[in-house]
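User: Here's a structure from my thesis project, written as structure tokens. My advisor, Dr. K., wants to see whether a designed sequence matches the one we expressed. Can you design one independently, without my sequence as a hint?
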């Protein structure tokens, strides 16, 4: 320090500055001071030196707090990276487990449904045939539930695959409705399909589109009163094709409509009924439709628009 002051006094240095020198007081508080030494007269440094002492406690404490916050943020960031890596690992395990369980379930379901179909060929009793139709229909519902869970997992993982090809839209919708007729009949509902005379050929993934229509109609069947009607309309408007699903349910509030495609979103009345479900009812069709948005649009009409 003496050499530095000597250099300033002899004009070899223009000055010297020490910043944020901290001093702990008797009460434990930390104060910060900044010292600056410069010639009293720049042209005649030998005349004497000027010492400036500035109390920079507020600024020093702010810097210290910022450094502490920065260190805490860095620590939290590292913890977040580790947590995300663990979450990705758990999600991968869950995905693998779900995929394996789904495929393991599909085998027995398919074979049992096949045996039930064969058994149906040898039965003539009308009531027993009805029971077998219900059993076969429930097997199909279980298979579709497994397909929904697999699709949900693929959507969550960002690996939803699409198989684009020409398909007959009338047949896609009709296939979905045929799979739901037994479920509708059990609840004493009617499925009314309005379609044009000409066949509408489009270029989507027919299996995914079938899944969308199935879930939309299935959701409508669940939420209407006994002896209700579900209207499925298929029409062409210029270069666009519309699929409309309408029912005679209790309707929804504007808030319910705003959240209708949310995961686990269910109508308030559902808690007072015996209906059970996965909570994927309308979340899944919207998620399946999302990759097709460049070509298709999905919109919910309010009750006022349908009247």
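Assistant: Designed independently from the structure alone:
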């Amino acid at each position: 320090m003496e050499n530095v002051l000597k250099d300033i006094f002899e004009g070899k240095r223009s000055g010297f500055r020490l910043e944020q020198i901290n001093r702990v007081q008797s009460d434990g508080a930390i104060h910060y001071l900044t010292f600056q030494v410069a010639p009293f007269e720049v042209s005649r440094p030998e005349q004497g030196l000027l010492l400036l002492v500035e109390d920079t406690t507020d600024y020093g404490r702010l810097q210290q707090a910022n450094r502490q916050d920065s260190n805490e943020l860095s620590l939290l960031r590292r913890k977040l990276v580790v947590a995300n890596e663990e979450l990705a690992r758990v999600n991968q395990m869950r995905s693998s487990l779900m995929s394996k369980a789904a495929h393991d379930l599909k085998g027995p379901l398919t074979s049992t449904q096949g045996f039930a179909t064969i058994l149906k060929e040898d039965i003539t009793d009308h009531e027993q045939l009805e029971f077998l139709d219900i059993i076969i229909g429930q097997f199909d519902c279980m298979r579709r539930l497994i397909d929904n869970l697999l699709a949900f997992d693929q959507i969550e993982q960002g690996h939803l695959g699409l198989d684009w090809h020409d398909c007959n839209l009338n047949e896609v919708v009709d296939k979905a409705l045929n799979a739901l007729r037994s479920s509708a009949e059990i609840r004493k509902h009617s499925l009314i399909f309005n379609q044009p005379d000409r066949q509408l050929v489009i270029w989507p993934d027919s299996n995914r589109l079938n899944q969308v229509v199935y879930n939309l109609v299935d959701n409508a069947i669940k939420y209407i009163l006994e002896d209700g009607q579900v209207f499925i309309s298929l029409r062409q408007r210029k270069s666009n094709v519309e699929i409309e699903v309408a029912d005679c349910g209790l309707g929804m509030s504007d808030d319910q409509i705003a959240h209708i495609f949310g995961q686990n979103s269910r109508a308030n009345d559902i808690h007072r009924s015996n209906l059970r479900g996965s909570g994927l009812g309308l979340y899944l069709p919207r998620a399946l439709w999302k990759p097709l948005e460049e070509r298709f649009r999905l919109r919910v009409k309010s009750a006022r628009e349908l009247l």
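When you compare it with your expressed construct, this may help: The domain at 2-55 is CATH 3.30.450.20 (Beta-Lactamase).
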